[in-house]
Design brief:
The structure holds two protein chains of two kinds.
Chain A lengths: L4 E3 L2 E5 L4 E6 L6 E7 L5 E8 L4 E4 L2 E6 L4 E6 L8 E7 L10 E2 L3 E6 L1
Parallel strand pairs in A: 2-11
Antiparallel strand pairs in A: 1-3, 3-8, 4-5, 4-9, 6-7, 7-8, 9-10, 9-11
Chain B lengths: L3 E4 L2 E4 L5 E7 L5 E7 L5 E9 L2 E4 L6 E3 L9 E3 L8 E8 L8 E2 L3 E5 L1
Parallel strand pairs in B: 2-11
Antiparallel strand pairs in B: 1-3, 3-8, 4-5, 4-9, 5-6, 7-8, 9-10, 9-11
The chains are: A mainly beta, B mainly beta.
Chain lengths: 113, 113
Amino acid sequence: SQQGEEDPQALSIQEGENATMNCSYKTSINNLQWYRQNSGRGLVHLILIRSNEREKHSGRLRVTLDTSKKSSSLLITASRAADTASYFCATDDSGGSNYKLTFGKGTLLTVNP
Amino acid sequence: DGGITQSPKYLFRKEGQNVTLSCEQNLNHDAMYWYRQDPGQGLRLIYYSQIVNDFQKGDIAEGYSVSREKKESFPLTVTSAQKNPTAFYLCASTSSGTPYEQYFGPGTRLTVT
């Protein structure tokens, strides 16, 4: 079953603006990850946040996790045209295998120069 | 260069033919995965393998088969029983030490007519 669901499905912003994407999931998790996919390419891991963490930063990325609401957000600050890509959240299942991730449908981010 | 390779990048087949997609990794990862991605959709897990000579069905295994005879290789066969095989196929791997972050290959786009 689909675990993570991203919102919005598509987001278009101007260069320099911030972009926020949200992810909701259904079951208890050990960790949540965000991945990026450029068109026609494989996914690239961006950041992982564990279930006992509330916020994590990596460069221009900020991820929050609210386990009580079963939701996460990814904030990209000072966006660049090169940030144009699809962004996916992925969750494991704390009752299942650590090796198995479930991906959402993604948010397509377009950053206009 | 360490990484995951998938070949070919584009593959065309006639309906009714079986086709095998290649996935090789030199990251010394124990676990490997096959995902299917349809346009505008997230990734759906087809099969995964945590160790050589062992693999498990994912969410959409029907019409697909895999083998894991070597740690480095995890080929996927799309059989004629797969009703809608045209899709983008992604292979990934992860370390048993940190079974969280998945490393992806560049993908194979399969078109069946």
